[in-house]
Amino acid sequence: xxxxxxxxxxxxxxxxxxxxxxxxxxxxxxxxxxxxxxxxxxxxxxxxxxxxxxxxxxxxxxxxxxxxxxxxxxxxxxxxxxxxxxxxxxxxxxxxxxxxxxxxxxxxxxxxxxxxxxxxxxxxxxxxxxxxxxxxxxxxxxxxxx
Length: 146
Known about the structure:
The chain has three helices and seven strands, in the order ββββαββαβα. It is an alpha+beta fold. The strands form two sheets. A four-stranded antiparallel β-sheet has the order 2-1-4-3. The chain has a three-stranded antiparallel β-sheet with strand order 6-5-7, with helices on one face. Helix 1 packs across helix 3. The longest helix is centred in the last third of the chain and has 14 residues. The termini are far apart.
């Protein structure tokens, strides 16, 4: 059961690397809240060596079974939004985003393309309000011996 959601757009970047074995490299480099008035794909900047574009239509969703992962990410020194993306028609397109550290780890382990981008303060405040309302850390048990 979904307990919260936030529409977002992802800033994607295409770079022309100096490496002779690669023509280009792609990455998710940021997110912004989507107020519903964004185009599905919008060019932000273009140059010979670097392009940035904004892809809307994604949603951060919060489910109670991922609470431990949300808390772990929130408490990290640098909280992230994890973005899974795939190549579509010659362009990297984000397909899923999460604020769960556990789900982010699954994205990286899947063998697909994924990036962790800095969590904006607005998303961090939203996640904090959710955790305060819906999460109680498990009590620590004494030292367990194997």
